[in-house]
Structure formats: C-alpha cells, structure tokens
Amino acid sequence: MISGHVFMATSLDGFIARRDHALDWLTERTTPEEDHGYEAFIDTVDGVIMGRATFKTVLGLGAWPYAIPVIVASSTLTEDDIPPELSAKVKLTQLAPRQLMQSLSDAGWTRAYVDGGRLVQSFLRAGLISEFTLTMLPVLLGDGRRLFGETESDIDLELLEAKSFRTGLVQLHYRVA
What we know:
This protein is an alpha/beta fold. 20% of the residues lie in helices and 32% in strands.
C-alpha cells in the first residue's frame, strides 16, 4: 500500500500560513543557500497530493515548482481552474483520502507527498500518514492556519531525526507509531 509523507514548515506555535494563506513569514526567514532537505525528500516520492488552498498558493508563487505529478483534492475546483500550461501536470480529484490512496497505489505509486493543512489533517485522521518532516521556524505568529487540528485520540510519533540549522530553524523527522 502507498504511504503518505508530510514535509512542511511551521512557525514555532504550529501555524503553516497566515489566516489569509500568506507565507511572508516563511520566505523572509529562509534562503536558497541553506538546504533543508526538500530536494532529497522530493526525490523519494512519486507525486504530490495537495489541497485547494495550497494549490492556489503555489500558483501565486510564480514558476510551477514540481516536475512530478500533482493531484489536487478539491470538491470545488474544476478543470477551468487549472492553467492550460499545467493541464498535463495537474489532475483534480474528489475522491476521499482512502479511495485516492488506493487509486494511486493501483497506478503504481508507493510514496505520496501530502501537502496542505486541512488535507494533512484528513489523511492523518484516516491513518494514511506514515512520516512527518517538520521544519520549525523561530517565529511566533499567534494566529493563522494550523497544521494539526483536533484528533479523536492521541497519535503517537517516533522521533527518527532532529537537525538544527545556523539560521535557527529546527527540523524534526517523525514516524507515526
């Protein structure tokens, strides 16, 4: 079966974006010169599953950053919402997390990058996330979009690795127990 993997940045107080989805707090505190393992991570996955809000945010960042397939999980977007130059690279789905993962597994995927706060929460509730790599930035936002929402019960994590970077970022790699 396919496994879901998360690679995200958060503020120290657990936010992945401002309430309006802005990422200025992230882009102001990271530099291209300091690799946080993203390229190595992206080389290990077959594709990206992202939510609607994340898709819209990525579209606003400029050049499309993915060479691998991208699946956008949304009940509101239509094919008209995908720019023509991305029509061969981005596919939409309305499948529930478990059905989507089964479909991707049937298509030969073994590892999926799950990206987007609410999407990660739904995949986590469904037991479809195997590992998290969380890079925490030394900033408190106080408000915004949280990575983790409410859970029905505790979710135990096993720490696989912890790294710190000279800019004050701390990266934690967990396996879901």
